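Protein record

Derive tokens from sequence
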Amino acid sequence: MSTFDAPSIVFDLDGTLVDSEPNYYEAGRLTLAEHGVPDFSWAEHERYVGISTRETITDWRKRYGLRASVEDLLEVKNGHYLRLARASTQVYPEMRRFVELLAAEGVPMAVASGSSPEAIEAILAGTRLDVHLRTVVSAEEVPRGKPAPDVFLEAARRLGTDPADCVVLEDAVPGVAAAHAAGMRCIAIPYVAAQADAPEFATAALLLRGGQREFTARAAHEWLTRSARPA
């Protein structure tokens, strides 16, 4: 058991636990190419990091003048993404160590993601993170996606934890804003380095400007220990 009064930990999935953005980019590129947008770039993709798939596609329809419905585009993109995710999704090694360390101490954990339930399930099962991360919330299960706090508040509810006793790990501006709106502390690990100076990141209790290169399981655990109440 833990020697400190550990908070509950809520993980974002994409870009935080796993490096799934390359797969999301490729799924988006393929989907848009099939609908007459042949030159979708990584730089364009970066503006959607941290935003739910449904909200991304809703914006695509306006930005690119797509005629297909949101539901049809969702089906196509999710199909491409699930195929890619099952074939190759990489867990950040230090994140896996952190999850395993917390699990060994019995710390309550959840995943709260803008991805579809099917995508979350596929990634957690394929990477074996589902052994430790059984409480899962998709933005499709709540009224509003990030930056609204709904997905994090629902995660806290399912864990039976007060939001003030939760710490969120996030990589993107919308997620950090959502954690702040939920009244939760946040460890921010920017996926897009250029966004580290965004005002939303300044609300994080701990900001690792170097992103995943700077994150270590040991240091994160020590920070939790220092900032927690004595058991």
Q: What stands out?
A: The radius of gyration is 17 Å. The chain has a mean pLDDT of 93.
